[in-house]
From TrEMBL, chain A:
It comes from Mesorhizobium prunaredense. InterPro entries: AA_ABC_transptr_permease_3TM, ArtM/GltK/GlnP/TcyL/YhdX-like, Ectoine_EhuC, MetI-like, MetI-like_sf. Keywords: Amino-acid transport, Cell membrane, Membrane, Transmembrane, Transmembrane helix, Transport. It is a multi-pass membrane protein. One of its GO terms (cellular component) is ATP-binding cassette (ABC) transporter complex. This is Putative amino-acid ABC transporter permease protein y4tF. It is found in: Cell inner membrane; Cell membrane.
TrEMBL record, chain B:
PANTHER family: L-CYSTINE TRANSPORT SYSTEM PERMEASE PROTEIN TCYL (PTHR30614:SF0), MEMBRANE COMPONENT OF AMINO ACID ABC TRANSPORTER (PTHR30614). It is found in: Cell inner membrane; Cell membrane. The lineage of its organism: Bacteria, Pseudomonadati, Pseudomonadota, Alphaproteobacteria, Hyphomicrobiales. This is Putative amino-acid ABC transporter permease protein y4tG. PROSITE patterns: ABC_TM1.
């Protein structure tokens, strides 16, 4: 009879690592998304080109390749990353590139009349962005950001392959120690799904809160 | 660490072997995903509440959990109940199932986008269900789906490195094995990245073309 309680503790530890990775990766992704998304709308060609290169590069190669590159190739050029650092870096930069397009699309979806109104009340470019455009665009971005966060959560499973002890890694440990495959893999599938539900629920309630008082303003 | 062109040429044949498997897996996975997606989309439209709800939940579950864990599940758990699959078959099934839940949404949106009037007109002309689908609904629903479907097939292509985790000898696995043999990571990993980048930049061009060709129904 297998002692499941001990193994379950192992899986819970893995869940904590997965959650930690998801949170840190999301923060980095959010920063990169706004930097690159606003960068693509910049007045300066150099900034636009830089942002486009970043986005195309990270969307064009898979997260798995980027992770391995960060973990195995960067040490040869003198940058040694721990598995956690490599994981957060690859996840954040990858998902950030996808989310950057969301930021750009949302900002562009705001009507011309809003920009004209900003000019009319003599707001500077930055003021217009900060006080008028972004507050409206944020609401458009939110649902897609939720999907991006779930994609990031799912992508964290890949870090188990560079020996980071996340859920998937721990399930493999349990599998190799007990020989049982059904229980560990089913458990972590359910945990991943639960986490994904929490994210989508959280984003939905955030959306409701931000949309409060905007009925009638937005069509 | 110097970039060594001789080494690049030396490992090229091995990597090309991997590329073949990568492309094969993507093609087979795409075909399966297209069929699974259609099956899910149709099942979700079924008047049988039990069927549509359970298929809906299952699709939601598969979409909310990582592909890597699903691959492990297919590769490690199924043999316990007597289904022993070769790695490539397990990988193709994993890819097809996972992306099938995404393509199902594409089909659903495509079918929902056909205006109600078309259904009613078909009924008014006394067409039966099969005729309505093949002559009225499908010809209008399918063209706008094509770019979105292609998008998911490209996404699937970028996920194929995950198959290396279940011992499929595709590009990533070949690169890892040459890297481990010679203890040189820079060239193989960079080449894998470059290969994926090249294909996806090419596919962006293809997608733009598909969007122009099929993206909008004539207004």
């Amino acid at each position: 009879m297998t002692q499941w309680s001990g193994y379950f503790g192992l899986i819970l530890q893995g869940a904590l690592v997965t959650i930690e990775l998801t949170l840190m990766g999301s923060v980095l992704a959010l920063i990169m998304a706004f930097l690159a998304g606003l960068g693509r709308l910049s007045r300066f060609f150099a900034i636009r080109a830089l942002a486009t290169t970043y986005i195309e590069f990270f969307r064009g190669t898979s997260i798995f390749v980027q992770l391995f590159w960060a973990y195995f190739v960067l040490p040869f050029v003198g940058i040694s990353l721990t598995p956690l650092q490599a994981g957060v870096l690859a996840l954040g930069l990858n998902v950030g590139a996808y989310a950057a397009e969301v930021v750009r699309g949302a900002i562009q979806s705001i009507g011309r009349e809003q920009y004209e109104a900003c000019t009319a009340v003599n707001l500077g470019r930055w003021q217009a962005m900060r006080h008028v455009i972004l507050p409206q665009a944020l609401l458009v971005m939110l649902p897609t950001f939720g999907n991006n966060a779930i994609e990031l959560l799912k992508a964290t499973a890949v870090v188990s392959l560079i020996s980071l002890t996340d859920l998937t890694f721990q399930a493999q440990v349990v599998r190799s120690q007990t020989g049982n495959t059904l229980v560990p893999f089913t458990t972590i599938l359910v945990i991943y799904f639960g986490l994904a539900l929490i994210i989508s629920w959280g984003v939905r309630s955030l959306e409701r809160r931000m949309a409060r008082g905007l009925d009638g303003v937005r069509v | 660490m110097e970039w060594d062109w001789n080494f690049v040429w030396e490992i090229m044949p091995t990597l090309i072997e991997g590329v073949k498997i990568t492309i094969l897996a993507t093609l087979l996975g795409s075909v399966l995903a297209a069929m699974v997606g259609l099956a899910i989309a149709l099942a979700r439209r079924s008047p049988n509440k039990g069927l549509s709800r359970s298929v809906g939940f299952l699709a939601e579950f598969i979409r909310g959990t990582p592909l890597l864990v699903q691959l492990y599940f297919i590769f490690y758990v199924l043999p316990d109940i007597g289904i022993l699959l070769p790695p490539l078959v397990a990988g193709v099934i994993g890819l097809g199932l996972h992306y099938g839940t995404y393509t199902a949404e594409v089909y659903r949106a495509g079918i929902d986008n056909v205006p109600r009037g078309q259904w009613e007109a078909a009924k008014a002309c006394n067409l039966n269900a099969r005729q309505t689908w093949t002559h009225i609904i499908m010809p209008q629903a399918i063209p706008p789906m094509i770019p979105a479907l292609a998008n998911y097939f490209i996404a699937m292509f970028k996920e194929t490195p995950l198959l290396s985790a279940i011992t499929v000898l595709e590009l990533m696995n070949q690169a890892k094995s040459v890297a481990n043999t010679y203890y040189r990571y820079v060239e193989p990993m960079t080449l894998v990245g470059a290969f994926f980048l090249a294909i996806s930049l090419f596919s962006v061009v293809l997608l733009r073309w598909l969007e122009r060709r099929y993206g909008r129904i004539e207004k």
